User: What shape does this take?
Amino acid sequence: MIMNKLFPKTKKRINSFLKRRPHRSFRRTRRRDFVRSLKLPGYFAFTNYVRKTLWINRRTFLSLAFTYALLTALLVGIASQDTYKTLTDTLRTTSGGLFVGIWGEMGKASLLYLTAITGGLSQSLTDVQQIYAGIITLLTWLTSIWLLRNILAGHKVKVRDGLYSAGAPILSTFIVALLFIVQLLPLALALIAYSAASTAGLLAGGVESMLFWIAASLLAVLSLYWITSTIIALVVVTLPGMYPYQAIKTAGDLVVGRRLRVLLRFLWLALTVVISWALIMIPIILFDAWLKGLWPSISWLPIVPIALLGLSALTIVWVSSYVYLLYRKVVADDADPA
Assistant: This one.
C-alpha cells in the first residue's frame, strides 16, 4: 500500500511488465502457458527468401555495399598487404615441407583465412578510425533497413535516398548497440577465463575442468539469451519516434515464448556467414598465391585485402537484411505473449 501511494508509476510499470511476461523466475511454467505461435519458413527456405529479395534489388544493395567499402577504405583503411605477404613468406619458409601438394596449399590457405577473419592482417586503428568504422557500420545498417522497409512498401528508392534519410535514429541505434556490447560481457569474461585457465593448465581434466566448462557455458548462454531480443531491438529502434528503452521493451515482448526459435535463426545466420566466407576467401587466397607465383612482380597487388573489404561490405548488408526480414516475420504473427 505504501509503495502504491509513493511510487504509483513504478507500481503500474511493474504490473504492466508482469502482465506482458507471464513467466516467473525459479517457478515452473507449464507448456500450455508458454506455447506461442511463430510461423516461419524453414532455415534454407528463409535464407533463400532473403537472397531473392536482395537479388531482385541487387543494383541498389550492391551500390550500398560499394559505398560502405569506399568509405571504409578512405576513412578507416584496409587490411595490410605487407602483413599478408610477410605471413605468407613465413609460412612458406618455416613449414618444413608441410604445405606440399594440393592439400598442403589448402591447409596454408585455411591458416591464412583464419588469420584474416580474426583480424591478424588489420593494422591497429586509431581512436578516430574506430569512431569512423562504428559510424559507417551503423549508417550501413540503418540504410539497409530503410531501403528494405520502403521497397517492401512498394516505393521506388535509391541508395542516395537511404543515405540521406536513414540516419535520423543513429543516436538511438547507438544506445541500443551499446547495450548489445554490454550484454556480450559474460561471453567475453568466459573467453578471458578460458585463456587464463589454459595458461595455468587447469583444463587438462578433472573436476576443475568440468566446473570451468559449466561456468563458461552458463556465461555464454546468458549472453545469447540477452542479445536475442537486443538484435531485434536494433530494428525496432529504427521506427519513427521510437526511443531506445521503448524499443528494447517492445523487442522483449516480441521474443517472449519465441526466444529459442529466434536465437536458432541468428545462430543459423552466423553459420551461413562463416561457411560463405570460407567458400569465397579460401579460393581467392589460392588464386592469389598461384597468380603471384607466376608473376612475382605483382606481389604488391592487395587482392586478398580488397576481397576482405568487399566481403565485409556484402556481409553487413546481408546480415542487416536477414535480421530485418526475420523481424517482419515475427511481427506478422501477433500472438499474445506466452
Summary: The CA atoms of residues 40 and 238 lie 23 Å apart.
